[in-house]
Every structure is written in C-alpha cells, then in structure tokens.
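Weekly structure sync, notes
Attendees: PL (lead), two postdocs, one rotation student
Agenda item 3: pending single-chain targets
PL asked that the sequence for the first pending target be pasted directly into the notes so everyone works from the same version. It is reproduced below exactly as submitted, 336 residues in total.
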Amino acid sequence: MLKFATIGTSWITDEYIHGAKDSGLWELAAVYSRNALRGEEYAAKHGAKLVFTDLEKLAACQEIDAVYIASPNALHYSHCKLLLEHGKHVICEKPLCAQAHKVRELTELAAHKQLVFMEAIMFLHQPQLKALEDALGKIGRITMAKLDFCQRSSKLDRYLAGELPNIFNPELETGAFMDLGVYCVYPALFLFGKPESFQVSVNRMKSGADGSGILSLRYPDKLVSLTYSKLGQAGADSDFQGTEGTVAVKSISQLNGITLRRKDGTVKEVHGSDEKYKLMGWEAKDFYRYITQPEESRAEYARCVELSILVSEFMEEVRRQAGLVFASDPDQVVHP
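Predicted structure, written out during the meeting:
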C-alpha cells in the first residue's frame, strides 16, 4: 500500500480520497491547507494523521509517496514542480497547465526523476472506455459527433449577485473551457486525433472568463462539435453518428449511460452509471499501477503522457483563437 497526501479541500478531493481508499491500494497520510483549522478539520474527516500548511514541508516529508493536487488551475504548475523536485509521484486535476510548454517541462522532470506524473482525467481510466470503443466499431463510418458538457455552476448565483467565485476568475486560469471543455476535448483527440482545422465561439462574461462555448472540429471525413457551459444545464446526450447506427453517451466526462442504437431501430445498453468516487477510484488504481508496475504499464502510461501534452497544446491554440488570454501566457495582452 502506498501513502498519499492531498492539496485541496473541495468536494472533488473528497471523492478522490474515497475512491483511492476504496481501491485498497492507498492510505491517506496527510492533507494540505493554507488554513490550519480547515486542515485539521479535513484531516479528521478523512482520517489523515498529518496536516501541513507549508508546501515545502509536505514535499520533504518522507512518509508520503505521492500527492493528489486539486488546487486552483493557476497553481498547478508550481505545486507539481515543487513536489516532483522532491521525489513525489503526482496526480493533478485537469487541466494540468494553461501552457503546453509547462506540461512538457513537468513531464520531462518526472521522467528524469523516474516519477509518475499523471493528469486526473476520468475518461482515460474507466473500464467502459473499451466498451465505448467496441460500440463505435459497430456503427460504420462515423460522420458526425456531438460532445456536450453543459452544467450550470453551483457558483453562478454568487457571480450574478456580484461576487467573483474562483471558477469565473480568469486570474486563476479558469472558465468554462478550462473546467468543462477539457472533458470534451479529451475524447475528441483520443478517438479522432488532432483536427485539420477548427472554429470556436465563446460567451464571455464581464469577469473576462468564458461562461460557455462552441468548438467545431473538421476532420477529412467527419465533423465534431463540442459544446460546454457553466451557465445552463444540458438536456441532451453526447452522440456519435455512423452510417450503421448511433452511440449515445449520457455523460461524456464519466462515460456513463452508453447506448448503442442500430439503424434498424434496435437499442442496446452498453453501460449504465457509477458513483463518482468509483470513477475516481479507477484513476487511483491506474496511478498505483503505473508506479508499482512500470515495465508492464510503460506503453499505457506513455500514451497518457502523450495525450496530456496533445490536449494542452490544442487547448492553448483554441484559447488563442478565442481570445481567452491569461496573465501567464507569454507575449499576450489580457482582455479586460
């Protein structure tokens, strides 16, 4: 069993801890919080023995093998770099970094240190991914795909009331594309590769963040549309349309609710639904396997790293075309 620490005390960290513990492979050794009282409460909630308010001390702790990072996007690079430099394996919430060169730098650092550095993206680690690929192989030539993740933010009412929650603050490298759009970009690039061209339109909020967007990808033989929003709730599935049928996916981020609809009208359920912590548990299991079985998992881990870099490069291109600029972007002017 390996010991891990967490950075971040939000609900997503709760789910990861639950999933990691449920796997039977991980023990929660420590938590980090800038607020000591909050850290003590969070450690007591999850049964961690150690609490840190100093990241340097956490990174130097010999009782920790790996760290799960769920800090604000703008802090991912510095947090990951510090921990990798101190010999910790790292799994970091999506998106890893706003700039692709930082992702490449961190992956090179991890390789030099013989450490695992992994993006926490549920799509890649669910066993039903194979079921999705099998179903897609039964619908003939895919000519159109629609990938959707529109989910009204729980922080939207606060924003509308005049506050500036983190998720709508571009200084923290957030917004709909970085938060939800990435869940659509991953399957598009995993299944079809980088498009030959793309167009993007965004709904910019007064804070400067994007509240929603539509991204259209053109391939030689298909069109793929990505819709994402934190301003409203979707009521329709994602789907892949082929000459012999359609595969619908209720949740593209979790790969839940997969249905195969053949052209003769017959319908088959491919996969139902899972609890969130179970989905994150698959990430924790693969993270453990990549660390403890490096030779056996080398090709799979390399594919994850390669895809993380590809996604970060493409998302940076999309942001540039959309005018979604962050202060950390080189040689760019931040829009007011």
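Discussion points:
- The chain has a mean pLDDT of 96.
- The longest helix spans residues 298-322.
Action: rotation student to compare against the earlier draft before next sync.
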